[in-house]
Write a structure and sequence with these properties.
The protein is mostly helical. It has ten helices and three strands; from the N terminus they run ααβββαααααααα. A three-stranded antiparallel beta sheet has the order 1-2-3, covered by helices on one side. Strand 2 (62-68) and strand 3 form a beta hairpin. Helix 5 (126-143) crosses helix 8 (202-213) and helix 8 packs antiparallel against helix 10.
């Protein structure tokens, strides 16, 4: 094998590792990791794999990483992140894998296999998630001093919220539109249940469901990003949380004005 062929092979190996590192950072961002965690993880993994330097820029929906190899060659990779979905179990798995790789780097083939395992991790069964939605809605309604009838109405509305969210995710509807449609449909169902005599307080029943819809983790992540001086991502996340809350409020108000 000639020197140029060896150089090309080494370059391709570096690029393959760089792609794996970028994928791990992407998973962290998709599943709920803050920007500083993503950048720190990418940097540490790059150093562990022998890159001379690693420069990572992460915002709310994009990661750009520039790797400099030992021979001075530099290459840049970018990943556009369109689908953000919270999954703390996958974040935990990404953190464990990154720590393991920093202690003892593994070959690219094994790295890719571990990434595939994280991507295809099984979540909770749909019926369990739906039941959690329903129980949480009912319990939160009772927390806000709703009656047992209000809690029963919230219990049913929680199932509507779950299935509407699944349908919107399948159709890949934009997040703010999804929030409005979910709120409007749930508000409509609550209004119907009240007219049938199940529940009395539209506001308390709605609050039980709103607690499942509001982006509390997104808001806190954006504040943490701003504290860590990641102002662009922080402001983007903050505005997304505020606009999402406005869409939810508009959906419930629209349903109340139309059907109550």
């Amino acid at each position: 094998m000639s020197l140029s062929e060896k150089t090309d092979e080494a370059s391709l190996g570096y690029q393959r590792i760089g792609k794996c590192i970028l994928s791990l950072g992407e998973y962290l961002l998709i599943y709920g990791g803050e920007v500083s965690r993503v950048e720190d993880t990418v940097y540490r993994l790059g150093m562990a794999y022998g890159f001379r330097s690693v420069d990572c820029l992460t915002i709310m929906n994009c990661i750009i990483v520039s790797f400099t190899c030992r021979d001075g060659e530099t290459f840049t990779q970018m990943r556009r992140v369109l689908d953000i979905k919270k999954d703390m179990e996958r974040v935990r798995a990404c953190n464990e894998l990154s720590r393991e790789l920093c202690r003892e780097p593994m070959p690219a083939e094994e790295f890719e296999a571990r990434l595939s395992d994280i991507e295809h991790m099984k979540g909770y069964p749909s019926w369990q998630v739906c039941l959690i939605y329903m129980l949480t809605s009912a319990v939160m309604t009772l927390f806000f001093r709703g009656s047992p009838g209000d809690a029963a109405a919230a219990f049913i509305a929680g199932a509507v919220l779950y299935f509407t969210g699944r349908l919107m995710a399948y159709a890949r509807v934009q997040n703010f539109v999804t929030s409005y449609i979910e709120a409007f449909l749930v508000g409509t169902v609550i209004s119907l249940l009240i007219s049938l005599g199940l529940g009395d307080h539209y506001d308390l029943i709605s609050m039980g469901n709103i607690m499942l819809m509001i982006s509390g983790s997104g808001l806190m992540t954006s504040i943490r990003d701003m504290i860590n001086n990641d102002l662009i991502s922080g402001m983007m996340g903050f505005m997304a949380a505020v606009i999402g809350a406005a869409a939810i409020a508009l959906g419930f108000v629209s349903a109340a004005l139309l059907f109550l």
